[in-house]
Prior knowledge:
globular; about 70% helix; disordered C terminus
Amino acid sequence: xxxxxxxxxxxxxxxxxxxxxxxxxxxxxxxxxxxxxxxxxxxxxxxxxxxxxxxxxxxxxxxxxxxxxxxxxxxxxxxxxxxxxxxxxxxxxxxxxxxxxxxxxxxxxxxxxxxxxxxxxxxxxxxxxxxxxxxxxxxxxxxxxxxxxxxxxxxxxxxxxxxxxxxxxxxxxxxxxxxxxxxxxxxxxxxxxxxxxxxxxxxxxxxxxxxxxxxxxxxxxxxxxxxxxxxxxxxxxxxxxxxxxxxxxxxxxxxxxxxxxxxxxxxxxxxxxxxxxxxxxxxxxxxxxxxxxxxxxxxxxxxxxxxxxxxxxxxxxxxxxxxxxxxxxxxxxxxxxxxxxxxxxxxxxxxxxxxxxxxxxxxxxxxxxxxxxxxxxxxxxxxxxxx
Length: 387
């Protein structure tokens, strides 16, 4: 019996050690053999952890600064023109209204003047409603409900109806404007609206802007498990959004936000990525985001999430392609999170993607072909499959 037990223990030890060695091999390679340039990636010393992506174009920054300078000086007219210039590009218009809301939180005398001069402006009324909503949410904070002090929660509940009423009034000023309905959808979550009540607001919103990315994010929050839905309801909602999103939209990125919710709430998004359908959907998201204009300011953070989850799903060639698109920027989740060093985490993740591609049959074949070509020509070039 003793020899049998010793043999079994020896086998177990060999198995564990073999597994550990296999697991350590890519990390050893990343430390000693990974040359990012050979894989179309920027060098390690060029990585920038201060930003998620490149800064906005100079003319965009200048335009925003001019609006801010004007309102700080008490002039609301450039703000009104700035919002109006977006026309019916409702995603862009909402982004501009959000900027105005942030400016109003630092002093809203100019907003009061705007509303007095243009009482029929839906933009002005929407900004005012959004300010009320954000004031309420600032009292509550971002913690789970059980961690919010009773007094803060009571004040939050007291303030929300005022925001809802203001948004409803704003909606009456321009029946085609989706902005007030986004405020309503967010407020409804705080006011504990039932699914039926929320669906009525959501239907009205979608009639005005069926593919609005920010609106869908607010709805995703409603349907997630930490609010009034479940993991299944949230994933179903995000899956539908991927499938009906128009080309060039960031809306397919909603699936990535759903995975983020799973990861932060449950500790992992892998269960949703382990199935063939989950991997196929993630591939669809990668394809869809490749069609989004490069200048879109939401794209960099979505790419960071995409690269992260492609790696978790084992879709390493796609992950490596996204890391190439990201370039030097690594100041975003998941690399920049809590006490993590973003440069180290980002470099490790892209190294693992490169390693997995090299170890695939196609990667090994390309490396062998590159070696053979190098032997024949005297070249010292790296593996062809790594480019």
